[in-house]
Specification:
This protein is of the alpha/beta class and about 160 residues long. The chain has a single domain, classed as L-asparaginase, N-terminal domain (Rossmann fold). Helices cover about 25% and strands about 30% of the residues.
Length: about 160
């Protein structure tokens, strides 16, 4: 992997909470700080294109994400995304040939102690380096085919579908 392209779209991974009533906004992308703190041994470029909860991502936003990824020369791509509509975005990105694209996010903000953000990012980085061209989701310690997974909102985790 020469340089990893990271495209950020917002989601829980980048949320900042302001009060006990769960008032929040999407803050600056956390992934760059996380990777620098961990001292990773590869180059990466971050393109922040959205700061949205994934429930507010529109079809035109998905097209912007697709066009951004397709326009870059990097073959290895990590997309941080909210978990509620990650599957839909992954399916749109499947139109892009000859790239390995992994989407990941978090079920609690990266700023929170005990967040799954760092683990999911690490899993996604391992996956993007090892998998063949295609689109994948890295969540809950597993790599998923976006056509065979869904988010179980009640259990707050991803699970296989038939």
């Amino acid at each position: 992997m020469d340089t990893l392209l990271i495209v950020t779209t917002g989601g829980t991974i980048d949320k900042i909470y302001f009060d006990d009533k769960s008032d929040y906004q999407i803050g600056d992308p956390q992934i760059g700080m996380i990777l620098r703190e961990l001292g990773v041994a590869f180059r990466f470029t971050i393109i922040p294109i959205l700061r949205k909860d994934s429930l507010h991502i529109t079809e035109s936003d998905r097209e912007l994400i697709r066009a951004t990824v397709a326009a870059q020369p990097m073959r290895h791509v990590l997309v941080t995304h909210g978990t509620d509509t990650m599957v839909q975005t992954a399916q749109v990105l499947a139109q892009i040939p000859d790239k390995t694209i992994v989407l990941t996010g978090a079920l609690s903000p990266a700023r929170f102690r005990g967040s799954d953000a760092e683990f999911n990012i690490g899993c996604a980085i391992g996956a993007v380096q090892c998998l063949p061209a295609g689109v994948y989701i890295a969540m809950n310690g597993r790599i998923w085919d976006p056509h065979r997974v869904r988010k179980n909102i009640e259990a707050n985790r991803f699970e296989a579908i038939d």
